[in-house]
């Protein structure tokens, strides 16, 4: 069976709009793998993550092309930025 679902979002190339999604990954590696596919298919610019998959106190499983922001022991939340044109500090 092929996936026929389409996503109406377009990747932001200027300051007009960004696509963003909030997800709870429940510390799951398979769910994190699905997130990588979703970010690519839906052209997400920013993902706000609750309970990301963590290994050795690092948010793990997210594509290395993304910028990942998390802080503190346990890494209970993270922000993943996939669009290089999104400025973040």
Helix-strand makeup class: alpha+beta
Return residue spans where pLDDT drops below 50 for at least 5 consecutive residues: 1-6
Strand order in space, largest sheet: 1-2-6-5
Dominant shape: globular
The tally of helices reads: 1
Helices and strands, in order, run as EHEEEEE
Radius of gyration over C-alpha positions, nearest whole angstrom: 13 Å
Mean pLDDT score: 84
Q: Work out the number of β strands.
A: 6
Question: Could you characterize what this model shows?
Answer:
The chain is of the alpha+beta class and about 90 residues long. The protein has a domain at about 20-80. The protein is built from 1 helix and 6 strands, in the order βαβββββ. The protein has one helix at about 30-40; strands at about 20-25, 45-50, 55, 60, 65-70, 75-80. The strands form 2 sheets. Strands 1-2-6-5 form a 4-stranded mixed β-sheet, with no helix packed on it. A two-stranded antiparallel ribbon has the order 3-4. The model is unreliable at about 1-5 (pLDDT under 50).
């Amino acid at each position: 069976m092929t996936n026929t679902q389409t996503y109406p979002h377009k990747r932001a190339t200027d300051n007009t709009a960004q696509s963003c999604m909030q997800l709870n990954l429940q510390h799951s590696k398979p769910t994190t793998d699905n997130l990588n596919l979703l970010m690519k298919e839906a052209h997400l610019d920013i993902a706000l993550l609750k309970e990301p998959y963590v290994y050795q106190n690092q948010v793990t499983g997210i594509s290395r092309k993304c910028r990942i922001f998390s802080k503190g022991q346990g890494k209970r939340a993270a922000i993943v930025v996939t669009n290089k044109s999104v400025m973040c500090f």
